[in-house]
Amino acid sequence: MTIQNIISQLGEGMLKTCLLFFSTLIISLPLGLIISFGRMSKWAPFGGKFKPLSLITRLYISIMRGTPLMLQIMVVYFGPYYLFGIKISASYQIYAAIIAFAINYAAYFAEIYRGGIESIAQGQYEAAHILGFSKNQTFFRIILPQVMKRILPSVTNEVITLVKDTSLAFVIAYAEMFTMAKRIAAKETSMIPFVVAGVFYYVFNLIVALVMNGIEKKMSYYK
Amino acid sequence: MKMIEANNLKKSFGENEVLKNISLEVDKGDVLAIIGPSGSGKSTLLRCITQLETVDSGEIIICGDTLVKNNEQGKAVYSSKKDKAKISRHLGLVFQSFNLFPHFSVMRNITEAQRIVLGKSKQESEETAVELLKKMGLAGKENAYPCELSGGQQQRVSIARALALNPDILLFDEPTSALDPELTGEILKVMRALAAEKMTMVVVTHEMLFAKNVADKVIFMDNGYIIENGTPDDVFNKTRNERTKAFLSRYYSGE
Question: Mapping DSSP to helix (H, G, I), strand (E, B) and coil, where does residue A78 land?
């Protein structure tokens, strides 16, 4: 099998890797923000120190960060059958992978957002309040843009990790690139698929780093 | 006309009673200076008037509208959310640490609230901003970002930002405390000019000369009480109160 052949076979896997990568980001970035709101919620319907929303999201984040992503992928994929006897088809693979990745990464992003939001000086809220901005206007116009700038380096880290983590989808035989590379390598008894896979992840991350760097530069017009 | 009326304000943070039965009045066009040692409650008083803090009991009336009054049990009851928002439109506040929005240009710092809160057009709000910046001696700084300005310039932008909403009363919370003496002069000059235009102002300050020379009324606060309330002459020259004398002498002994 020639290198061209291997690359073209891996090509389909690359597309699936990209699909998983972008779907995860599109879902987990906003979801993380919502979870961070829950985490910071001071809602205490029964009075006192019991804050149900904050407690639930803390538990959620703790589980997502405390257990292996690989295990979470398997639970999401096999759970419906083992727990409820629902027959799962191969087409569920991609959904299971995206769901597992999105809820896992949302937990990490939530904590990053929280750190960013809590780092904004109280004076910004006070100035906005005095000027008559509503809570929503204050958050989306004044606070969030500043949060984005501050959390960008941490987000870049997570995004780079995500590129490599997509390979974990092999545990449910989702035919992303790494799964394909393994198959071809076994069949051809060749290292080349692994080398190609390595180069692919490296170049992908190089692009991610360049793009994020560009965004950081664009936001560096103020301190 | 009374612009601010505050009666029997009380405020505690936990066990610590910060305001103990504070009453004051501010007339239209007057400059009220509030002086006193750190921790005397003067900033808290300003924050209660501007709704950044809530009082535990007492009454605040701003430009004839009641912000808060006592119920029969003597506990503070605030007006509706809508009324509170309306009342806060009478007030502008200048902070000790400026609190400009760092991600906005000088121009947008001044126009954003005009557009979002008052619903003014882009052009109208920018005209107002340009005019105010000129008045603040900052013409041509429209496109600068706060981080590119000196502390004195930032504070003047924040005064322009407050004035852009056309408040009836401008309040200052130690506006020069974060600035070195040279920059302090810039700000005091602007405040003097506003006083000359008969802007109603309440100024919490450590600048005794400003209080003495510019203010119409001076309040001296200590430990949550108003110790003195009178003209600058009453407070600075004629006081018989030992606490006031001790406080003022520290400022004049060249400390």
Answer: helix
Q: Which of A128, A142, A223 sits opposite B147 (nearest CB)?
A: A223
The alpha carbon torsion through B39, B174, B226, B22 (nearest 10 deg) reads -90
The radius of gyration of chain B's CA atoms, rounded to the nearest angstrom, is: 18
With tokens 């004049």, the residue in question is: B252
Distances (CA, A) of A35 to A18, A61, A98, B168: 25, 9, 18, 41
Write out chain A residues lying below 8 Å of B92, CB-based. 130
3 state DSSP class of B82: helix
Q: What is the pLDDT of residues A162-206, one digit of tens each?
A: 999 999 998 888 888 888 898 898 888 888 889 989 999 999 999
| Helical residues (DSSP H) of chain A, grouped into ranges | 3-40, 52-66, 69-84, 92-118, 122-131, 135-137, 144-165, 177-188, 192-218
Q: What pLDDT shows up at residue B253?
A: 60
Whether A149 contacts chain B with CB within 8 A: yes
CB B196 within 8 A of CB B220: no
A9 touches chain B (CB under 8 A): no
Q: How confident is the model at residue A48 (pLDDT cuts 50, 70, 90)?
A: confident
Inter-chain CB proximity A221 and B145 less than 8 Å: yes
Instruction: Please tell me the distance from the alpha carbon of residue B153 to that of residue B4, in angstroms, as a whole number.
Output: 29
Establish how many alpha carbons lie within 13 A of residue B227's alpha carbon, considering only the half-sphere containing its beta carbon: 24
**ipTM of the modeled complex:** 0.93
Domains along chain A with CATH numbers = 16-172 (1.10.3720.10)
Q: Comparing C-alpha atoms, which of A147, A149, A201 is closest to residue A177?
A: A201
